[in-house]
UniProtKB/TrEMBL annotation:
GO molecular function terms noted in the UniProt entry: ATP binding; ATP hydrolysis activity; transmembrane transporter activity
InterPro entries reported in the protein's UniProt record: AAA+_ATPase, ABC_transporter-like_ATP-bd, ABC_transpr_LolD-like, MacB-like_ATP-bd, P-loop_NTPase
Matching Gene3D superfamilies: P-loop containing nucleotide triphosphate hydrolases
Domain ABC transporter residues, every copy: 5-245
This protein's name: ABC transporter ATP-binding protein
Length: 255
Protein backbone atom coordinates (compact mmCIF):
# COMPACT_ATOMS: atom_id res chain seq x y z
CA UNK A 1 0.00 0.00 0.00
CA UNK A 2 1.89 2.95 -1.36
CA UNK A 3 -0.82 5.62 -1.16
CA UNK A 4 -1.71 7.02 2.22
CA UNK A 5 -4.56 9.04 0.78
CA UNK A 6 -6.62 8.69 -2.36
CA UNK A 7 -9.78 10.26 -3.71
CA UNK A 8 -11.88 8.78 -6.50
CA UNK A 9 -14.38 10.93 -8.39
CA UNK A 10 -14.71 13.17 -5.36
CA UNK A 11 -17.55 15.69 -5.61
CA UNK A 12 -18.65 18.39 -3.21
CA UNK A 13 -21.81 20.34 -3.83
CA UNK A 14 -23.30 23.12 -1.74
CA UNK A 15 -26.95 24.00 -2.14
CA UNK A 16 -27.51 27.65 -1.35
CA UNK A 17 -30.95 28.97 -0.31
CA UNK A 18 -32.46 25.56 -1.01
CA UNK A 19 -32.17 26.05 -4.75
CA UNK A 20 -28.88 27.12 -6.30
CA UNK A 21 -26.46 24.22 -6.57
CA UNK A 22 -22.74 24.98 -6.47
CA UNK A 23 -20.43 22.19 -7.59
CA UNK A 24 -17.27 23.09 -5.72
CA UNK A 25 -15.26 19.90 -6.25
CA UNK A 26 -15.74 18.15 -9.57
CA UNK A 27 -14.63 14.53 -9.84
CA UNK A 28 -11.31 15.05 -8.12
CA UNK A 29 -8.97 12.06 -8.45
CA UNK A 30 -5.96 12.48 -6.22
CA UNK A 31 -3.31 10.17 -4.85
CA UNK A 32 -0.85 11.03 -2.13
CA UNK A 33 1.98 8.65 -1.42
CA UNK A 34 3.20 7.78 2.05
CA UNK A 35 5.92 10.22 3.03
CA UNK A 36 5.10 12.81 0.36
CA UNK A 37 5.02 16.57 0.95
CA UNK A 38 2.32 18.00 -1.29
CA UNK A 39 1.08 21.56 -1.69
CA UNK A 40 -2.08 22.83 -3.34
CA UNK A 41 -2.12 26.18 -5.13
CA UNK A 42 -4.68 27.96 -7.27
CA UNK A 43 -6.91 31.05 -7.36
CA UNK A 44 -9.10 32.11 -4.47
CA UNK A 45 -12.38 30.18 -4.59
CA UNK A 46 -10.99 27.34 -6.70
CA UNK A 47 -11.82 24.83 -3.94
CA UNK A 48 -8.47 24.27 -2.18
CA UNK A 49 -9.79 24.44 1.38
CA UNK A 50 -12.85 22.44 0.44
CA UNK A 51 -10.59 19.73 -0.96
CA UNK A 52 -8.58 19.66 2.26
CA UNK A 53 -11.69 19.39 4.45
CA UNK A 54 -13.25 16.66 2.32
CA UNK A 55 -10.16 14.56 1.84
CA UNK A 56 -9.30 14.65 5.55
CA UNK A 57 -12.74 13.58 6.75
CA UNK A 58 -13.46 16.96 8.33
CA UNK A 59 -16.41 17.39 6.00
CA UNK A 60 -18.73 14.92 4.27
CA UNK A 61 -18.24 14.35 0.56
CA UNK A 62 -21.30 14.68 -1.69
CA UNK A 63 -20.26 11.72 -3.83
CA UNK A 64 -17.18 9.71 -4.66
CA UNK A 65 -14.77 8.06 -2.25
CA UNK A 66 -11.80 8.88 -0.07
CA UNK A 67 -9.40 6.18 1.06
CA UNK A 68 -6.95 6.52 3.93
CA UNK A 69 -4.40 3.70 4.13
CA UNK A 70 -6.75 1.68 1.95
CA UNK A 71 -9.83 2.19 4.18
CA UNK A 72 -12.78 3.97 2.66
CA UNK A 73 -13.17 6.79 5.18
CA UNK A 74 -15.91 8.47 3.14
CA UNK A 75 -18.09 5.58 4.38
CA UNK A 76 -17.04 6.03 8.04
CA UNK A 77 -19.47 7.17 10.74
CA UNK A 78 -18.91 10.51 12.51
CA UNK A 79 -17.55 8.58 15.48
CA UNK A 80 -15.07 6.60 13.40
CA UNK A 81 -13.96 9.78 11.64
CA UNK A 82 -13.41 11.63 14.91
CA UNK A 83 -11.25 8.75 16.16
CA UNK A 84 -9.29 8.65 12.92
CA UNK A 85 -8.65 12.41 12.99
CA UNK A 86 -7.57 12.27 16.61
CA UNK A 87 -5.20 9.32 16.26
CA UNK A 88 -3.84 9.44 12.72
CA UNK A 89 -4.13 13.02 11.49
CA UNK A 90 -2.80 16.42 12.50
CA UNK A 91 -4.29 19.75 11.47
CA UNK A 92 -2.63 23.16 11.23
CA UNK A 93 -5.02 25.90 10.25
CA UNK A 94 -4.53 29.60 9.87
CA UNK A 95 -7.27 30.55 12.27
CA UNK A 96 -6.07 28.17 14.89
CA UNK A 97 -8.47 27.50 17.68
CA UNK A 98 -6.40 27.42 20.81
CA UNK A 99 -8.14 27.41 24.16
CA UNK A 100 -7.72 30.76 25.87
CA UNK A 101 -8.04 29.51 29.44
CA UNK A 102 -5.28 26.91 29.05
CA UNK A 103 -1.51 27.41 29.01
CA UNK A 104 0.41 26.79 25.81
CA UNK A 105 1.65 23.48 27.16
CA UNK A 106 -1.88 22.34 28.05
CA UNK A 107 -3.14 23.34 24.59
CA UNK A 108 -0.51 21.07 23.06
CA UNK A 109 -1.13 17.99 25.22
CA UNK A 110 -4.92 18.14 25.48
CA UNK A 111 -5.77 15.98 22.45
CA UNK A 112 -3.13 13.41 23.40
CA UNK A 113 -4.63 13.04 26.88
CA UNK A 114 -7.99 12.57 25.15
CA UNK A 115 -6.64 9.99 22.69
CA UNK A 116 -4.92 8.10 25.54
CA UNK A 117 -2.34 6.77 23.11
CA UNK A 118 0.30 6.62 25.81
CA UNK A 119 0.91 7.55 29.43
CA UNK A 120 0.65 11.19 30.47
CA UNK A 121 4.33 11.11 31.35
CA UNK A 122 5.26 10.06 27.80
CA UNK A 123 2.90 12.64 26.32
CA UNK A 124 4.45 15.40 28.45
CA UNK A 125 7.92 14.36 27.34
CA UNK A 126 6.88 14.37 23.71
CA UNK A 127 5.33 17.84 24.10
CA UNK A 128 8.55 19.16 25.62
CA UNK A 129 10.56 17.64 22.77
CA UNK A 130 8.27 19.17 20.13
CA UNK A 131 8.41 22.57 21.83
CA UNK A 132 12.18 22.39 21.84
CA UNK A 133 12.24 21.37 18.18
CA UNK A 134 10.02 24.30 17.21
CA UNK A 135 11.85 26.76 19.48
CA UNK A 136 9.09 27.60 21.95
CA UNK A 137 10.29 25.77 25.09
CA UNK A 138 10.35 28.92 27.17
CA UNK A 139 6.65 29.55 26.47
CA UNK A 140 5.31 26.35 28.08
CA UNK A 141 3.55 28.08 30.98
CA UNK A 142 2.51 31.18 29.08
CA UNK A 143 -1.04 32.03 28.36
CA UNK A 144 -1.77 31.97 24.63
CA UNK A 145 -2.31 35.73 24.71
CA UNK A 146 1.39 36.02 25.62
CA UNK A 147 2.72 34.73 22.30
CA UNK A 148 3.27 36.20 18.84
CA UNK A 149 1.55 34.99 15.65
CA UNK A 150 4.63 33.02 14.62
CA UNK A 151 4.91 31.45 18.07
CA UNK A 152 1.24 30.50 18.05
CA UNK A 153 1.74 28.84 14.69
CA UNK A 154 4.50 26.77 16.29
CA UNK A 155 2.10 25.88 19.10
CA UNK A 156 -0.36 24.75 16.44
CA UNK A 157 2.34 22.59 14.84
CA UNK A 158 3.22 20.99 18.20
CA UNK A 159 -0.44 20.35 18.83
CA UNK A 160 -0.87 18.82 15.36
CA UNK A 161 2.09 16.50 15.96
CA UNK A 162 1.47 15.47 19.55
CA UNK A 163 -0.28 12.21 18.61
CA UNK A 164 2.44 11.31 16.12
CA UNK A 165 0.06 11.45 13.13
CA UNK A 166 0.60 9.64 9.84
CA UNK A 167 -0.40 12.77 7.94
CA UNK A 168 -0.54 16.49 8.67
CA UNK A 169 -2.93 18.84 6.85
CA UNK A 170 -2.36 22.58 6.76
CA UNK A 171 -4.61 25.28 5.30
CA UNK A 172 -2.31 28.28 4.79
CA UNK A 173 -0.13 27.23 7.74
CA UNK A 174 2.11 30.24 7.16
CA UNK A 175 -0.63 32.60 5.98
CA UNK A 176 -0.59 34.99 8.93
CA UNK A 177 3.19 35.17 9.19
CA UNK A 178 5.94 37.44 7.91
CA UNK A 179 8.36 35.86 5.46
CA UNK A 180 11.02 35.11 8.09
CA UNK A 181 8.57 33.24 10.33
CA UNK A 182 7.00 31.54 7.31
CA UNK A 183 10.43 30.33 6.30
CA UNK A 184 11.14 28.95 9.77
CA UNK A 185 7.80 27.15 9.87
CA UNK A 186 8.51 25.59 6.47
CA UNK A 187 11.93 24.38 7.67
CA UNK A 188 10.19 22.72 10.63
CA UNK A 189 7.62 21.09 8.33
CA UNK A 190 10.38 19.93 5.95
CA UNK A 191 12.17 18.30 8.93
CA UNK A 192 8.99 16.59 10.06
CA UNK A 193 8.47 15.33 6.53
CA UNK A 194 12.08 14.09 6.35
CA UNK A 195 11.33 12.12 9.51
CA UNK A 196 8.53 10.33 7.66
CA UNK A 197 5.27 12.23 8.20
CA UNK A 198 3.18 12.84 5.09
CA UNK A 199 2.15 16.49 4.70
CA UNK A 200 -0.49 18.20 2.57
CA UNK A 201 -0.80 22.00 2.69
CA UNK A 202 -2.69 24.71 0.86
CA UNK A 203 -0.72 27.86 0.14
CA UNK A 204 -0.75 31.03 -1.97
CA UNK A 205 2.94 31.56 -1.43
CA UNK A 206 5.43 30.42 -4.10
CA UNK A 207 8.26 30.49 -1.56
CA UNK A 208 6.31 28.12 0.67
CA UNK A 209 5.26 25.78 -2.14
CA UNK A 210 8.85 25.72 -3.47
CA UNK A 211 9.84 23.81 -0.33
CA UNK A 212 7.29 21.07 -0.97
CA UNK A 213 7.84 18.03 -3.12
CA UNK A 214 4.87 18.18 -5.49
CA UNK A 215 2.62 21.14 -6.29
CA UNK A 216 -0.97 20.62 -7.39
CA UNK A 217 -2.75 23.39 -9.25
CA UNK A 218 -6.48 23.76 -8.66
CA UNK A 219 -8.83 25.61 -10.94
CA UNK A 220 -12.60 25.73 -10.73
CA UNK A 221 -13.00 22.64 -8.57
CA UNK A 222 -10.44 20.37 -10.11
CA UNK A 223 -6.73 19.63 -10.06
CA UNK A 224 -5.78 20.59 -13.58
CA UNK A 225 -2.01 20.12 -13.40
CA UNK A 226 0.83 19.19 -11.11
CA UNK A 227 4.51 20.00 -10.88
CA UNK A 228 7.16 17.70 -9.42
CA UNK A 229 9.91 19.54 -7.57
CA UNK A 230 11.37 16.58 -5.69
CA UNK A 231 12.19 16.52 -1.98
CA UNK A 232 13.57 19.75 -0.60
CA UNK A 233 16.70 19.80 1.49
CA UNK A 234 18.22 22.98 2.84
CA UNK A 235 21.71 21.53 2.39
CA UNK A 236 21.30 20.06 -1.10
CA UNK A 237 18.92 22.42 -2.90
CA UNK A 238 19.17 25.89 -4.31
CA UNK A 239 15.86 27.30 -3.08
CA UNK A 240 15.98 30.27 -5.50
CA UNK A 241 16.20 27.87 -8.46
CA UNK A 242 13.19 25.94 -7.15
CA UNK A 243 11.21 29.15 -6.68
CA UNK A 244 12.04 30.33 -10.19
CA UNK A 245 11.12 26.98 -11.71
CA UNK A 246 7.81 26.95 -9.84
CA UNK A 247 7.05 30.60 -10.73
CA UNK A 248 7.60 29.89 -14.41
CA UNK A 249 5.27 26.91 -14.25
CA UNK A 250 2.59 28.89 -12.40
CA UNK A 251 2.85 31.63 -15.01
CA UNK A 252 2.26 29.03 -17.72
CA UNK A 253 -0.84 28.04 -15.75
CA UNK A 254 -1.95 31.67 -15.94
CA UNK A 255 -1.58 32.19 -12.19
N1 LIG B 1 -20.26 26.21 3.38
C1 LIG B 1 -20.32 26.68 2.13
N2 LIG B 1 -21.49 26.94 1.53
C2 LIG B 1 -21.55 27.39 0.27
N3 LIG B 1 -20.49 27.63 -0.51
C3 LIG B 1 -19.27 27.42 0.03
C4 LIG B 1 -19.11 26.94 1.37
N4 LIG B 1 -17.79 26.82 1.61
C5 LIG B 1 -17.16 27.21 0.50
N5 LIG B 1 -18.04 27.58 -0.46
C6 LIG B 1 -17.71 28.05 -1.81
O1 LIG B 1 -16.87 27.11 -2.40
C7 LIG B 1 -15.91 27.76 -3.25
C8 LIG B 1 -14.54 27.25 -2.91
O2 LIG B 1 -14.20 27.68 -1.60
P1 LIG B 1 -12.82 27.32 -0.92
O3 LIG B 1 -12.85 27.90 0.42
O4 LIG B 1 -12.58 25.85 -1.03
O5 LIG B 1 -11.80 28.07 -1.88
P2 LIG B 1 -10.24 28.29 -1.74
O6 LIG B 1 -9.62 27.82 -3.00
O7 LIG B 1 -9.76 27.68 -0.47
O8 LIG B 1 -10.13 29.88 -1.68
P3 LIG B 1 -9.11 30.83 -0.85
O9 LIG B 1 -7.82 30.78 -1.61
O10 LIG B 1 -9.75 32.17 -0.93
O11 LIG B 1 -9.01 30.30 0.54
C9 LIG B 1 -16.10 29.24 -3.06
O12 LIG B 1 -16.81 29.73 -4.16
C10 LIG B 1 -16.92 29.33 -1.80
O13 LIG B 1 -17.74 30.44 -1.81
MG1 LIG C 1 -9.03 28.47 1.34
Amino acid sequence: MNNILESKELNKTYVVNNKTQHNILKNVNLQIKKGEFVSVMGPSGSGKSTLLYNISGMDNVTSGSVFFNGHEISAFSENELAKLRLNKMGFIFQHIHLLKNLSIFDNIILSAYMAKVSSREKINQRALRLMKQTGISELANNDITQASGGQLQRVAICRALINNPDIVFGDEPTGALNSKSANEIMEILADINQAGTTIMIVTHDVKVAAKTERVLFMLDGNIIAEHQLGKYSKEKNDIKARENKLSRWLMEMGF
